[in-house]
Amino acid sequence: MSNYSIKNLEEYYQVYRKSIREPENFWEEIAEEHFLWRKKWNNVLSWDFSTPQIKWFEGAKLNITENCLDRHLINRGDKTAIIFEPNDPAEEAQHITYTQLHERVCKMANVLKDQGIKKGDRVCVYLPMIPELAITLMACARIGAIHNVVFAGFSAKAVSTRIIDSDCKMVITADGSFRGNKSIDLKGIVDEALQDCELVDKVLVVKRTNADVTMVEKRDVWLQPLMDKASSDCKAELMDAEDPLFILYTSGSTGKPKGMVHTTAGYMVYTAYTFKNVFQYKENDVYWCTADIGWITGHSYIVYGPLANGATTVMFEGVPQYPDFGRFWKIIEKHKINQFYTAPTAIRALAKQNLSFVENVDLSSIKVLGSVGEPINEEAWHWYNDIIGKGKNPIVDTWWQTETGGIMISPLPYVTPTKPTYATLPFLGVQPAIVNENGEELKGNQVEGRLCIKFPWPGMARTIWNNHQRYKETYFSTYENMYFTGDGALRDEVGYYRITGRVDDVVIVSGHNLGTGPLEDAINEHPAVSESAIVGFPHDIKGNALYGYVTLKETGESRVHENLRKEINQLISERIGPIAKLDKIQFTEALPKTRSGKIMRRILRKIAENDMSNLGDTSTLLNPEVVKDIIDQRL
Ligand code: WTA
């Protein structure tokens, strides 16, 4: 069907117009053509953003694992579904075919059933990036259990909060995980977490590190012996289109994390269709997304999207800096990666390193480069484009969220001309709106405001687990009849979108709204600067002033900070205007980051405001130790 192979921008606009003029027909055609249904839907879409209630493909029956596995067995049985690249480069990579993956998923599904898991039960998954993680997700989906993956870097407290919130019955974990030259005691963390969780009566443990672990009698069971005994025959549970597929927690600006609920049919259709289009995956390509399956990017674009397309998807257990900063590039060379999808924070870290890491490897297999998770700054974009893409591979800067399930705004490679720092155009069927603070939609081009979505798309989360009211308040109450993303965006003169960052990161200085993203872009252009974060702090006259935290590149030469401060402000003056000059610039070793690599601006804002009483929980940070240093050296 033509939708799967849009050849040029004109065709994109044609199909796009159709997709928003007749959304039901558009999605129905895609659903008809590309998936395996046990029963077709009675109704493509019913929706009401005021309650909010959203249903796609109501009445349809299916199982997502039949779409990701069974249907590929005839033509792709011997094709590699998953390439597992271990943490230690000396350990051999594993190539798991569709036939083998199907068998392992079915066995695991039978293990879950034998251990008492039924349709609708919640299963907490706390595993490293090993094949069992992907297998567990699909084993749950096979029998209709709802997986709740918790990133295996979260603390015991974070694990127990999530287990309790979603009433999980079982936890699946490992004896440990390898990350670079460290190993982490996952089982110990689960043991600690479970002290607070009475409902969990079973823990399945995968052997990975061979670490010494304590097995709690009756509760804890090694997985492998059960797998060895399990039958590889497991009929897929018949699921309703709107049955929950998984819960995934995302942190809110306040309060406890929100358990976003994704349902079966819409999520499947959306992730598969976006994957195919945004990465232009072709039958023999090898695709690699460096995210962890503990995040939505891994769910949608390591597991479900690629496998629904019969793709070969890479799972990497390790970290970009182990054994050295050339690891990513060596993996690309080794597996001849065609589509590479990573995050700006990784790009920036790698761009800081000696160029020899890149120069000594063959990256010629690459066709498409992807970026996700935060706005990509101009300098990183160019480095990615020039050094990794050699100026010939399109960058797809994909904007989306845990809540959206799949990619919402992105170039289509070789179709949409890219523009640095722009996510460019809405995906087919996606209807963005930019609104001002009063909720009025700003039509036309060259406007800036808050990003909303006006019409449902199949991949959207349907609710927050156990808290539909919070779902309504967070996403559907700020602006009437629109989904509010929490992000700011602008639309340029040709209709391209640029995501300017979370709206709570806008600082108003002397009545001028300043997005911190563009300011940081400007600062990052300074040759000595590695990364920066700007926050607002109260100022007597201007209302707010700007506080910049800046990390410097390790160039070996020592620079006088006072001179650097002048140069940085000069740069800002040139790029944005004198109004945007920073009042304070603090040089720091590192910026506090979440485990997914996002800068924790909330903490930086508090420090800038000199309000250290209420820093919140810093224990889930990637690098909690930097917070103290930043406080000590506060200006
Ligand atoms: C930000 C990750 C700019 C944005 C898939 C969003 C981005 C939040 C981009 C969601 C991008 C994600 N450009 N900003 N290409 N992609 N974001 O839930 O602020 O971890 O709201 O989902 O990341 O983060 P989440």
What labels would you give this structure?
635 residues, alpha/beta, Rossmann fold, GMP Synthetase, Chain A, domain 3, 2 domains, eight-stranded mixed β-sheet, seven-stranded mixed β-sheet, 20 helices, binds 5'-O-[(S)-ethoxy(hydroxy)phosphoryl]adenosine
Description:
This protein is 31% helix and 24% strand. The strands form eight sheets. The chain has an eight-stranded mixed beta sheet with strand order 12-11-8-6-7-14-15-23, sandwiched between helices. Strands 5-4-17-16-18-19-20 form a seven-stranded mixed beta sheet, with helices on both faces. The protein has a four-stranded antiparallel beta sheet with strand order 21-22-24-25. Helix 5 packs across helix 9 and helix 13 (344-351) crosses helix 15.
End-to-end separation: 60 Å
**Outline type:** globular
Count of helices? Answer: 20
Sketch the major β-sheet: 8 strands, mixed
Radius of gyration: 24 Å
Total strand count, please? Answer: 30
Cofactors, ions and other ligands in the entry: 5'-O-[(S)-ethoxy(hydroxy)phosphoryl]adenosine
CATH superfamily of the largest domain, please? ANL, N-terminal domain
Please mark out the parts with pLDDT under 50 across 5 or more consecutive residues, or reply none: none
Average per-residue pLDDT, rounded, comes to: 93
Which fold name is given in CATH as the topology of the largest domain?
Rossmann fold
Structural class: alpha/beta
The strand line-up of the biggest sheet is 12-11-8-6-7-14-15-23
Strand content: 15-25%
- CATH C-level name of the largest domain: Alpha Beta
